[in-house]
Design goal:
The complex is a heterodimer of chains A (310) and B (241). By secondary structure, chain A is mostly helical. Chain A has helices at residues 4-15, 23-48, 57-74, 81-100, 105-125, 127-130, 147-168, 171-181, 183-188, 193-219, 224-227, 230-244, 251-268, 276-290, 294-297, 299-309; strands spanning 136-137, 221-222. Chain A has one domain (22-309): ABC transporter involved in vitamin B12 uptake, BtuC (Orthogonal Bundle), CATH 1.10.3470. A two-stranded antiparallel ribbon of chain A has the order 1-2. Chain A is globular and about 50 Å long. Chain B has 241 residues and is an alpha/beta fold. Chain B starts with a strand and ends with a helix. In chain B, the strands form two sheets. Chain B has a six-stranded mixed β-sheet with strand order 6-7-8-3-9-10, sandwiched between helices. A four-stranded antiparallel β-sheet of chain B has the order 2-1-4-5, covered by helices on one side. Chain B has a domain at 3-80 and 156-240: Rossmann fold, CATH 3.40.50.300. Chain B contains ten helices and ten strands. The chains are: A mainly alpha (310), B alpha/beta (241). Chains A and B meet through α8 and α9 of A and α2 and α3 of B.
Chain lengths: 310, 241
């Protein structure tokens, strides 16, 4: 029975556009699914393997710029970014991994944060290559309608979900958890910690890069401030997973839904709408104090609290 | 008797501090060798050198005729050296069975094989009933058993046990002695750090004594216990006179 829930969910999601949702609703759904992909990708590295990255914008941005530069410089469709980003983001992940994965805990987090910022500043200054702060604009987007974009990001999300579930239940998954729980113990039990941390980073980065490629194609405009943003990408990625539930299969999707809806809601509020960053910060603090395992991870706890109220 | 582990003039310096000075000894296949010495004698440092966490500053370590000093710990484990930690390091948030499976995957790549192997080992060390317990909830005695189970899951030829008896009550100690003897009977060579003399005397074929990073005695438990050097190291100068 339980195995049928994801299939039913996917069918439901696949049928959703047929209901005739408004363009705005479709946009929100697309964002939720895109953030689910980024969250799931981050969760593999941060949640399961325990390497908390504060710089996933590096991979999102590199994916987006791979697609954008293909269009800008070679005049090729930005959709070709998908195959090419595997190579570009992969190489980027190996370089970042080589530098950062020798560090542990907070030092790793700070190093990844720095790498994301380095890439943002680089993209701003390599004007000849990236158009700098002017950004890249796709003159004519593939579709005016949102339906196809929806199906594309949904396919990526389903692929990401299945891939990660398969990985986590395999030998690799055990190795990731062992590294998260105690790296020295893992190493002395025959686990090549450097190798498997790199594998986790590589897969996480490429999946995040896919979301970036999609973003370029979907939004039609990127600049370094948007796709390499520390606060709007790297930090929100962590929030999506923290709110939903670290190291859970459904946490990122739940977190993405809440964060995207919340962002829309807060932005539409009069006056305090501009302070949405501060409100997110407060939310994160509350989540860490009361639901340290996120909504999915602390679901049993949440249920008992609600029942007691009622 | 074939030498399995050979230390040749191993020294380890941390800055100006000499943690190990020119230590040489051999562990033969099938033996149980005790490694004793006062606190700070360099016993755990020696384990860290054998297991690859530290590279010796001088000297070499050979395992099964192959030089292992300088290799990374996971490589050394793959060759057949497993260890436990004095301060137990279970994979806290994982269940007992998952802890053991994580190491069983080293020699059994399929999930089913790893699971079967892990279950067999849990039976062997007497943790089978606790297999679904999250390991941070285990009492210390069982955590020490889990450490051993995890090490055994890598199918070692040489097992390094770092104070597996510390903090155990007498009943648990007796069980642990039986477990270690059983492991040895299965053909696993054992090098064990221990403070309990009763334990060391009852299970070791030979004993190596370290003091201030130097080997001061080596021999049968009886020889070592009566060596004036060893008594001096443990009890001080006046006790000898």
């Amino acid at each position: 029975m339980r195995g049928l829930v994801p299939i039913a969910g996917i069918i439901l999601l696949a049928l959703l556009p047929l209901v005739g949702l408004s363009t705005y609703m479709m946009h929100i759904l697309i964002l939720v699914i895109m953030w689910s992909v980024i969250g799931m990708a981050w969760n593999l590295l941060g949640g399961y393997c325990g390497q908390v990255s504060f710089g996933h914008a590096a991979f999102f941005g590199t994916g987006a710029y791979t697609a954008g530069i293909l269009y800008l410089k070679l005049g090729v469709s930005a959709w070709w970014g998908f195959p090419l980003s595997i190579v570009v983001v992969g190489v980027m992940a190996l370089i970042i991994g080589f530098i950062c994965l020798r560090l542990r805990g907070p030092f790793f987090a700070l190093a990844t944060l720095a790498m994301g910022e380095v890439l943002r500043v680089t993209a701003e200054n390599l004007r000849g290559f990236t158009n700098g702060t002017l950004g890249i604009l796709i003159q004519k987007r593939t579709w005016v309608e949102k339906t196809w974009y929806y199906y594309i990001i949904l396919a990526i999300a389903v692929f990401t979900f299945l891939l990660i579930r398969r990985l986590v239940n395999s030998r690799l998954g055990y190795y990731f958890l062992a590294i998260r729980e105690d790296q020295d113990a893992a190493e002395s039990l025959g686990i090549n910690t450097t190798l498997y941390k790199t594998v986790a980073l590589l897969i996480s980065a490429i999946l995040t890069g896919f979301a970036g490629v999609f973003y370029m194609n979907y939004m039609g405009y990127i600049d370094p401030e948007i796709v390499y943003a520390l606060h709007d990408i790297s930090i929100i990625t962590i929030m999506v997973v923290m709110v939903g539930g670290v190291a859970t299969f459904w946490g990122p999707a739940v977190g993405a839904l809440i964060m995207v809806l919340l962002a829309e809601l807060i932005r539409s509020l009069p006056r305090i709408g501009t302070a949405h960053q501060s409100l997110f910060g407060i939310l994160l603090i509350l989540i860490i104090i009361f639901l340290p395992n996120g909504i999915v991870g602390d679901f049993p706890k949440l249920k008992t609290i609600l029942r007691r109220r009622a | 008797m074939r030498p399995l582990l050979e230390l040749k003039g191993v020294s380890k310096f941390f800055g100006g501090l000499a943690a190990l000075v020119d230590v040489s000894f051999t562990v033969n296949e099938g033996e149980v060798v005790g490694l004793i010495g006062p606190n700070g004698a360099g016993k755990t440092t020696l384990f860290n050198v054998i297991n690859g966490f530290y590279k010796p500053s001088k000297g070499e370590v050979y395992f099964d005729g192959k030089r292992i000093s300088g290799l990374r710990p996971h490589r050394i484990c793959r060759l057949g050296v497993a260890r436990t930690f004095q301060v137990v390091k279970p994979l806290q948030r994982l269940t007992v069975i998952d802890n053991v499976m994580a190491s069983a995957f080293l020699r059994s790549p399929s999930r089913q094989e790893a699971l079967e192997r892990a279950e067999k080992i849990l039976h062997f060390v007497g943790l089978y009933e606790d297999r679904e317990t999250v390991s941070k909830n285990l009492p210390l005695g069982k955590r020490k058993k889990l450490e051993i189970a995890r090490a055994l899951a890598t199918e070692p030829k040489l097992l390094l046990l770092d104070e597996s008896f510390a903090g155990l009550n007498p009943k648990e100690q007796a069980e642990m002695i039986e477990t270690i003897k059983k492991i040895n009977r299965e053909g696993v060579t054992i090098l064990i750090i221990e403070h309990h003399m009763r334990v060391i005397m009852s299970i070791s074929n030979r004993v190596v004594v370290l003091n201030y990073g130097e080997k001061i005695a080596e021999g049968s438990p009886q020889e070592v216990a009566s060596s004036p050097e060893v008594i001096k190291a443990y009890l001080g100068e006046t006790a000898v006179a």
